[in-house]
């Protein structure tokens, strides 16, 4: 569970956030009491595990309540709302126990929800309703780095490992995966692979997809294990059928991952631009020059004001290079040259080059502060749980030719919905990842619930407006948050129908009982 | 057809090659006469196209003989061996005609073989036997660049276009796809996508896979068209189910491809190493430093002697960088530093940096000569057709930790087979592509048929020995030559069985009659 509870905000912290937000929105927000697990009255389990599985299965309130949700658990937790908990939570400690629990469920028709770290924001780990008993499977006991191949720079890793623990095991050998999604501390390797998570690198190899050398996934029809290969042209890539399958084809048990030598050389610069448009135009040019910076994160003027104290008119581009072998001085110089030629401003003194003399834990002000905030998460929204905010994020990717009209339409639609639902609100945008052919923008919105309406309904209305605008503008419903159940209505329109038919057929073949994560990605 | 006939060797050229090889192998090789299409007596077509399709369907001898084979046609052509020609060769001129021909075949159960450019070396476009009438579909009439998006750097291209014609259409706008498989002149975009072809870039984005922004594929169940996106995390990537599907799920009609601004800056160096092992060790270090050179091709001492006049003990590494925006002077310097530190030798005078002052058509001696030979093809084997040689190439990819033992085992097995089959022969190796976690080696072998045995059987024996060694050593049966029918026995052992079951189920769903390229990749 990676220390989630210790990271929870205290009552005093929550009160402070409530006061701040009350002032900001001109309303009076109250801090509700949060019930403990003992106080919950959950539906009785509809089934018990066979005795042979009892040693690694749990049915207590805390386990069942915790595994009722993904990252959307906070609001529900605050109000003690757990109408559909899993009946059993299995924590297999090895592949034999994993086989035993999947055999039991597939044989008996019980739904299986692979849990990962439970950071889904799209209902990807929520027990389905109307499908009878549910067994949630969490691999947190299978969390070891089993082998490191330091010649090929690859490691065999169990899928249940959380981000920090994975890095702890690679560090002594001088390696790192350097895959840092926002949920890094609380999500697992298996979850990253199952959801095509987006990571540390802002350009080139942005998704976990590129770091998977081979996978081992248990399906109801047996083990799907691919060969360790640096590349292949033999048929459709069997790794790419697993990556993004969100638990509907099987449970990922382990993977050989491409790892990195730890960076010793770094170079960073924060460049400001007189407008949002001039910032994204520079970003496009740097991406198309294929310098492949590790960091190329652009903040719109609203976010640059909030996060870095800019004046609200200028956008901010954070550029970063890193290497284990080579000084990045030339690289940052070339990127800065391109940025300046495109209208950017940066003092020479603010171009930081670290040629390995420091340990790399500190960084110059602007870029470092932003980086910590990015990894730590959504900037205080957790502490605002239960306070009555319509708050959320959505992200996408779109080609450059469509981007300006796309951004305008998405902003207009989202702000109009916030206006209608909350009587106003705010929206900002950053690029988390950038490709030669388009950006991956990430939007954050915030408003206050209107008293007298259903809060969940208000949240849905904003999300709906944003998603419709994304689809209409030519974007994808998700660049790295996955589909789960929440994104289904738009995913169903985005994907080609023959592909959906093929995916359904593949699932029927592997999982004839349809027990694996029903309702995610496809209907039976 | 891209001018194949005009590129064929003359009788005089073939006689010269025969004399050269006779001297080399100590045998007397004779140049046989090649029958013309009129002289062939082909099996009568087993069906005729409906009248509505007649305008774009052909049944003459030349069409049917030509489309009887892929790149292995030469030996058969020499001896007039065409036992199983397609019954109809369709050349649809637009998507309506493509739909009409697929409707006809799917409705009547006739096999459909998508032909591409017909450069398959693995039987991927050979009409299946024992499956009744066969309709081969060639998209060579659908060969236009339909749109260029110069902001996103992407182009919408019809799948039937051959390499040179594609480049001709991109050049006026200042763009290039820069995908140059060895078969470049005679293969098509659709074929590249269907077979996951390996291209120009030796590192980073090596396969066509990375340049596909979206695809449009006709299946018997309708159009599979993906959305143009720079990236996405929405479910398993539907492009990756099409890429590598080798015509068994549908016929690719067009694609949005990521294109490049034409390179103006180049830098190259040819570095020699005292051994094969020191050459590959340097190559690994350069690949792991992630400088991402466009060219990083390593020749073993045998090939370096043949192709570049080295002394037979030294290996040769050709390093090349290119960019449309930035001088590559620093990049080549850093790569050369790494190569020298790893024991490589190169004179400063032999490091060539072109900062856009030349037009780029010429290159310094070593690298240019090698590049022309690579793109032109297999170095004279075509002209040796029918002369009695056991000659061929095979390629793979394998992780670095396995590579030294792998290379030794593959060489031993192949040379032993050549010894047994031909009484001797030769083998050389180069790296065509290199990854941080392993190389993609490409082997070429040559021997003389032993008189009195079946030549095809001798060829098969050598291929079999090499393929077994590849599988046993941890490689893939193909890094970029595809699977087709020839590689099936090893592909079937390489891929995970649940994946094969899922692929079969997907095919049954999309192509319930099983008409599309039966026997390729999977059995029904």
Walk me through the structure:
2 copies of one chain form a homodimer. With 524 residues, chain A is of the alpha+beta class. Chain A has 3 domains: 5-137, Uridine Diphospho-n-acetylenolpyruvylglucosamine Reductase, domain 2; 145-261, 2-Layer Sandwich (Uridine Diphospho-n-acetylenolpyruvylglucosamine Reductase, domain 3), CATH 3.30.465.10; 264-481, Vanillyl-alcohol Oxidase, Chain A, domain 3 (3-Layer(aba) Sandwich), CATH 3.40.462. In chain A, 32% of the residues lie in helices and 19% in strands. The first copy, chain A, has helices at 11-25, 61-66, 73-79, 95-108, 163-170, 189-195, 238-242, 276-288, 301-308, 329-341, 365-376, 403-422, 455-473, 488-494, 497-510, and strands spanning 57-58, 88-90, 111-114, 134-137, 145-149, 154-158, 175-176, 212-219, 222-225, 251-258, 260-261, 265-273, 295-299, 315-323, 352-354, 389-395, 426-435, 438-448. In chain A, the strands form 4 sheets. Chain A has a 7-stranded antiparallel sheet. The first copy, chain A, has a 5-stranded antiparallel sheet with strand order 5-6-10-8-9. Chain A has a 4-stranded mixed sheet with strand order 1-2-4-3, covered by helices on one side. In chain A, a hairpin with a 2-residue loop joins strand 8 and strand 9 (222-225). In chain A, helix 8 packs across helix 10 and helix 12 runs antiparallel to helix 13. Chain A is globular, with a radius of gyration of 23 Å. The two termini of chain A are 32 Å apart. The model of chain A is unreliable at 359-381 (pLDDT under 50). Chains A and B meet through strand 9, helix 7, helix 8, helix 10 and strand 18 of A and strand 9, helix 8, helix 9, helix 11 and strand 18 of B.
């Amino acid at each position: 569970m990676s220390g989630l509870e210790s990271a929870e905000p205290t009552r005093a912290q929550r009160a402070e956030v409530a006061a701040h937000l009350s002032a900001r929105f001109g309303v009076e927000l109250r801090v509700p009491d949060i019930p403990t697990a003992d106080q919950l009255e959950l539906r009785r389990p509809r089934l018990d595990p066979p005795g042979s599985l009892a040693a690694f299965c749990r049915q207590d309130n805390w386990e069942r309540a915790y595994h009722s949700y993904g990252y959307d658990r906070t609001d529900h937790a605050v109000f003690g709302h757990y109408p559909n908990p899993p009946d059993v939570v299995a924590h297999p400690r090895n592949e034999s126990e994993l086989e035993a629990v999947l055999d039991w469920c597939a044989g008996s028709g019980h739904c299986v929800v692979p849990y990962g770290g439970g950071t889904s924001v799209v209902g990807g780990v929520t027990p389905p309703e109307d499908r009878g008993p549910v067994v949630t499977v969490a691999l947190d006991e299978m969390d070891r780095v089993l082998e490191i191949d330091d010649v090929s720079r690859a490691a065999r890793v169990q899928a249940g490992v959380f981000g920090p623990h994975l890095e702890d095991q690679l560090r002594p050998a001088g390696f790192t995966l350097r895959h840092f999604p926002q949920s890094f501390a609380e999500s697992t390797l298996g979850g990253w692979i199952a959801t095509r998570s987006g990571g540390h690198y802002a350009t080139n190899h942005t998704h976990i997809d590129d770091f998977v050398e081979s996978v081992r996934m248990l399906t109801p029809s047996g083990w799907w294990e691919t060969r360790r290969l640096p590349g292949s042209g033999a048929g459709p890539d069997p790794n790419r059928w697993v990556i993004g399958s969100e638990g509907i084809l099987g449970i990922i048990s382990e993977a050989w991952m491409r790892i990195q030598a730890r960076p010793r050389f770094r170079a960073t610069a924060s460049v400001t631009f007189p407008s949002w448009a001039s910032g994204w135009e520079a970003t496009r040019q740097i991406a198309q020059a294929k310098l492949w910076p590790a960091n190329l994160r652009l903040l719109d003027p609203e976010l640059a004001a909030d996060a870095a104290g800019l004046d609200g008119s200028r956008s901010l581009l954070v550029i970063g290079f890193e290497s284990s072998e080579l000084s990045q001085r030339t690289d940052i110089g070339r990127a800065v040259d391109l940025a300046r030629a495109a209208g950017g401003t940066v003092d020479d003194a603010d171009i930081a080059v670290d040629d390995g003399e420091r340990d790399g834990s500190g960084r110059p002000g602007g870029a470092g502060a932003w980086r910590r905030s990015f990894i730590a998460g959504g900037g205080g929204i957790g502490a605002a749980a239960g306070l009555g905010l319509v708050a959320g994020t959505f992200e996408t990717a779109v080609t450059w030719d469509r981007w300006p009209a796309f951004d305008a339409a998405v902003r207009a639609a989202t702000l109009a919905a916030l206006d209608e639902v909350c009587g106003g609100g705010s929206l900002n945008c950053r690029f988390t990842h950038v490709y030669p052919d388009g950006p991956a923008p990430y939007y954050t919105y915030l408003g206050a619930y209107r008293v007298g309406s259903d809060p969940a309904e208000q949240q849905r209305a904003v999300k709906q407006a944003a998603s419709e605008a994304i689809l209409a503008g030519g974007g994808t419903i998700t660049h790295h948050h996955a589909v789960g159940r929440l994104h289904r209505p738009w995913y169903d329109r985005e994907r080609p129908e023959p592909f959906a038919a093929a995916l359904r057929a593949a699932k029927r073949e592997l999982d004839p009982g349809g027990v694996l994560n029903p309702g995610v990605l496809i209907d039976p």
